[in-house]
Amino acid sequence: MATILIKNLPEDLLKELKRLKVELGCATWAELLAKLVESERAISLTEEEMNEMKSGIQGFLKLRSVISTAWTGRPTVLEETRRSRAHETG
Amino acid sequence: MKQVSRLLTLDSNVLIAALKEDEPYSEKCLEILRKVPDKFILSEPSIIYQEVCGTLARKARADVADEAKKHLDLIIHPRLLASCNRNFCVSAYLLCSEYNVYAIDAIYLKVALNHQAILVSLDKDFIDKVNSKKPNIEAYHVPEFPY
């Protein structure tokens, strides 16, 4: 296993890295680096941001009843969106 | 310990179908949306506002579309909303040729490729075309979404 020494790390960045190390449950700095590389495909949000998103999803899905009453049968969603994107039909 | 969520690019048709009960796969679309944000965080192009809210305004009412817009503001993190400006569109249009997909489909594909997100659509034809080119992202037709 290799060892790296990082010089001139700004205090703010070190503080942020320490916060992430705790939040992401990493026992070592190597684990944190591995998670950050992996996180190119993932994202970690604050609890407040997560709660906002949850509330957004709940509110959005509450529209299900009014939409389902106003729009029944055909066109289906796929037909409607394809039409709006001017896809060829048939 | 904080959980890390994967990025997911949902075609607008998935969000709309989750709201229309008699739609094929509506329940599955609902199930996928309910996994946001605990398992997945959305990464979307800004055109999703026009597609979702425009469709709801046309098929339901303008005030319902306004309501949906407010919720989309909360659901999509600003950092993960790709602005469909000139630069973005210029970077996306070649995908139409590379993947043989339609112009707007290419916009969703571009966002997914840029963020290494999982791409999900109700349009099987679109997903089949994407997967036929073996991209380095996962792409699923709604009923095949495995998570």
Structure explained in plain terms:
The complex is a heterodimer of chains A (90) and B (147). Chain A is elongated and about 65 Å long. Chain A has 5 helices and 1 strand. Chain A is mostly helical and 90 residues long. Chain B is of the alpha/beta class. Chain B has a single domain, classed as Rossmann fold. Chain B contains 8 helices and 6 strands. In chain B, the strands form 2 sheets. Chain B has a 4-stranded parallel beta sheet. A two-stranded parallel ribbon of chain B has the order 3-4. In chain B, strand 5, helix 8 and strand 6 form a beta-alpha-beta unit. In chain B, helix 5 packs across helix 7. The model of chain B has no long low-confidence stretch (mean pLDDT 95). The chains are: A mainly alpha (90), B alpha/beta (147). The interface between A and B is large, with 42 and 54 residues.
Spell out the key features of this protein.
heterodimer; A: about 90 residues; mainly alpha; elongated; B: about 150 residues; alpha/beta; four-stranded parallel beta sheet; two-stranded parallel sheet
CATH class wording of chain B: Alpha Beta
Integer average pLDDT of chain B: 95
Q: Give a quick account of the main beta sheet of chain B: strands, pairing sense, barrel closure.
A: 4 strands, parallel
Number of strands of chain A: 1
Q: Average pLDDT across residues of chain A?
A: 87
Give the terminus-to-terminus CA distance of chain B. 21 Å
Poorly predicted ranges of chain A (pLDDT <50, ≥5 residues)? none
**Number of DSSP helical runs of chain B:** 8
* Number of helical segments with 4 or more residues of chain A: 5
